[in-house]
Amino acid sequence: MLIRPACLEDADVLSALVHSVVSYLTIHDDGRNAEAFFASITPAAMAERLQSPQFRYWIAIDDHQDVVGAVSIRDNAHLYHLFVDPKHHQQGYGSQLWSHVKAYALANGNPGVFTVNSSLFAEKMYRKFGFVATAEKQEMHGLAYIPMTLTLAAE
Predict the structure, then answer these.
(1) What band does 155 get if pLDDT is binned at 50, 70 and 90?
(2) Which of 13, 89, 102, 133 is buried most deeply by CB count within 10 Å?
(3) What is the CATH classification number for the domain harbouring 84?
(4) pLDDT at 59
(5) Structural domain tally of the chain?
(6) Whole-angstrom Cα distance, residue 66 to residue 31?
(7) Is the pTM of this model over 0.85?
(8) First to last CA, the chain
(9) Dihedrals φ, ψ of 25, to 5°?
(10) Which PANTHER family match (predicted)?
(11) Using one digit for the tens of pLDDT, what is the confidence trace for 54-89?
């Protein structure tokens, strides 16, 4: 798998990838009450984040040149997006993307503290990465999530 920095031309691909996993994120199957979330994952909204110095995005491409996942970090500390195409779940892509973004953040001044708002579906994966819940399940804008933090031990 190749992990490369995302560029402005990837906005459509990133939007499509997130749309492929919305059923894992929204409270209601029909997406009601999640309009703000849907507005945040349009190609235009993705393009805006791709141009923002606050965000860094990477795309994972498999041996067949298919996009299998993406990851982003906000402010070098908050895991903003980590999505893997549902056809590629349980194949280690999420772990590889997390390792990549974590290494980037640490190399760029992160002291070893990360946060994420985990979907209920991804909570087990984040616990495997070492994240711990900092609050009970939250519901906002049609989404359910669990705020989590990871503090790496100082070496």
Answers:
(1) low
(2) 102
(3) 3.40.630.30
(4) 97
(5) 1
(6) 27
(7) yes
(8) 29
(9) -110, -35
(10) ACETYLTRANSFERASE, ACETYLTRANSFERASE (GNAT) FAMILY PROTEIN
(11) 999 999 999 898 899 999 999 999 999 999 999 888
